Amino acid sequence: MSAQLLQFLFAGLTAGAIYALVALGFSIIYNASQVINFAQGEFVMIGGMATVSFLHLGLPLPLAALAAVAATTLVGLALAKLAIEPARNASVVTLIIITIGASILLRGLATLVWDKNLHPLPAFSGDKPIALDGATLLPQSLWVLGVSLAILGALWWFFNRTLYGKAMLATSHNRLAAQLVGISVRHVLLASFGLSAALGALAGILVAPITFTSWDVGVMLGLKGFAAAILGGLGSGPGAVLGGLMLGLAEALAAGYVSSAYKDAIAFVIILAVLMLMPSGLLGRRAAERV
Amino acid sequence: MLARLRTPRTGGLLALALVVALLPLGLVNNYLYDVAVLVGLNAIVCIGLNLLIGYAGQISLGHAGFFALGGYGSAILAARYGWPPLAALPAAVAGVALLAWLIGRPILRLRGHYLAMATLGMGVIISIVLTTEDRFTGGPDGMSVPPLALFGHALGGERGWYWLVSVLLVGCVWFALNLIESPRGRALRALHGSEIAAEMIGIDSARHKVAAFVLSAVLAAAAGGLTAHYSGFITPGQGSFLRSIELVTMVVFGGMASVFGAVVGAAVLTTLPQLLTVLKDYEMVVFGAVMMFTMIFMPRGIVPSVAALFRRKAAP
Amino acid sequence: MGIKHRFTAVGRSFCLAAAGLALSFAAHAQPPIKIGAFLSVTGPAAFLGDPEQKTLELYVDKINAAGGVLGRKLELVSYDSAGSSEKARTFVKRLIDEDKVDAIVGGSTTGETMAVIPLIEQAQIPFISLAGAVDIVEPVKKWVFKTPATDRMACEKIFADMRTRDISRVGLISGSGGFDKSMRAQCMKVAPRYGIAIVADETYGDKDTDMTAQLTKMRQNTQIQAVLNCGFGQAPAIVTKNFRQIGMTVPLYQSHGVASKVYIQLAGAAANGVRLPAAALLVADELPASDPQKKVVEDYKQAFESHYKQDVATFGGHAYDGLMLITLAMKNAGSTDKAKVRDALEHIHGFMGIDGEFNFSPTDHMGLSLAAFRMLEIKNGDWTLVK
After folding, report:
1. Domain extents for chain B?
2. DSSP readout, A91-157?
């Protein structure tokens, strides 16, 4: 395999893993409530920025990261409780607008609590690039890929082996039936937001050493995460991961082999093409419309 | 006679015409006229978008792309090829209509969030092309646009534009209100209720959805072209994803399935940032909070919620 | 009433009248001089607008504390245009029509500046832009001036330095933003004059997070003797990190768009060895005492850093120069009449600002010479002067 192709693959997989994590956040919330949470990108931002703050306060990196994830989870729970729950009977479009308002609010708060500058995070295990077959890989990329895989494993175990996870899955399949067997749909909603917030925060912390973090880093990431979730099929966990990786790879390969100016456009053209052929995404459930 | 005044078509239209005619009494300088013109242009886009979202039940997160294409189309024809703006503008709008028809057929086979994503992708692609093809478009910093000229006189002042845009706005509102009550409009609303049921009674859903899509694209492109000639300038930012979201927000905020809601939404969300500048650093926070609270407490949008309030008070 | 009494009565009323007249004169001198500003404090150019806003606020206060200008206080009316040309236009209309300012300093980005120039010319109000492209003052517009050195000058400075290192084949890498594209175009235009051939031309998106693909292509190109990155914001820092990551060893040049400590913080150790043209502000300590800019630059650095507890950036210096030039012009003209201030601006000679020495003329509304740029190299995480 040529060194150039290998380099592109590494770049694509690293970006793809981040998109996958964000996409998972979208899917989990969608499953629990049919809502598209446009503030998902802001969870990523808060994770990164909060870690920077905690580091400045003197905490060692692992503790700072943990504290940041906890803080972001609280923000996610607050969003669910204060904004989504009161409007739970509104139409889906209204809920989307509420999350858009929330994303603006969170960005505004970020400029007040922190500042408008870019901030780096130290790499988890140093900056020395690893040479592999002519291409170079940052150790941080390995962290991104590794931790993402670990999270996927943990999520699979959670949803398939624990009662709580199964309850959340049940709610996504049939809300009424879940309520009938005693699952508190409200709790599931809260849990889904909390879990997605934690996922977003982790993604933000993992990627900040490579791409820096700032108050508006969530806009682009949220957009790409949403695209990845749709590409893979909204509501499907494996779909979100597949969509994220595909999106990352498409971007990197397009930048390398076609045109770096058009790489985003090419990625979106690919997504549109896939949607034309598979209207519910790669692994999405075929929606059945009842009259 | 009084009963006629209560219907949206006559009463509402009259009220709008009155507001538009009397507003200049409060517009004491060019800046205020400028904001009014921008409100009017946004409202025209929102009326079209509302027909698509509120009545036909589809969604588009890429409509700013049509807006920008209309603007750039007219700008490029006028500035680079020397067309008179009065010819460039309709030509650009016709071009966008064709594009919307070509894209609409395949895209509108998607539903819900997948449709949202497809329109989003379309908008982003348009935005990227406009930014990158700088030989035509002037690149990320945009290009200047010659002013609209009517019979040799350049229409440059804010006041002249205010009257032009007002007339067009009232015309669009009248057109939209009539469309909704027409057989075409009723077919659209049936589609929104249930696509399968509508097809069962013989409505060609694909044709109607595409028609709504093209119509809303035409209105967006027209507004885009007018904005370009009014400002004398256009940038790719006019077609950005954030701008598309802004437009959808105006429609939902003002009230879906309500033509006047579209106008109100555009008015509120265009003037609010100007009012909030006094808050300096807190502007974003307050703006986001206002959006959230309004939607939580008035989930169907401003105009339908207020109308429901009046109806409740009127009923015994 | 005795005569003495009447005199004192008349005297008292006379004094009261005189006092009243004097007070009313003082009241007439009261209305503040309004300086309007529109800056990209948020948005993609917050890098620029934030230090500019802070500088304007700081120095308006300082000038007022020292007595103001022409006996009147200054009032700053500023809006955040967030890098959007549309918002910039609306805010400029607001500044002119509603706030009725006497002069405008602003336009952090070239795009915003170019979009408002027709409004400025129509309203006939003096305007000092804080943006970089040479198109702002070429051709000269009557009411438009600017303070930063142009992107063309940056290219010239860089190419001159490259010649001293025997570099003649250069690879360009630039972003999708207006600044990047403008500087890239200028560099391609002036390269032949310095005997430099551009043998590679890569681009990336401003928000991209990985440029290894483009840089890898450049590494394969053995013709390249140096790489020039025309960019600003977060992307150049990522380019720098990727550059070292894939092991490129040829000299890397950045533009004046990264002239801020944030770039070094973000790029980390990868920034060592990078050269860039920048205003003397960044190496204030290293300037010899005989350097004519030393005092201005050190005073600003000290004032800004002690007040805001953050490092100076050259962008704040543009705003400082803009404000000082406008107030100097007002003092020279003896009034705030827009036409007189504009004429006074055009005749300013030898004003030592942070960007350099300004010498305006009817044909030169930028006022700086190539000497305004110094060549800097980053060593051990800090700026040093290349002798």
Report:
1. 29-314
2. -HHHHHHHHHHHHHHHHHHHHHHS-SS-B----TT-SPPEEETTEEE-HHHHHHHHHHHHHHHHHHH
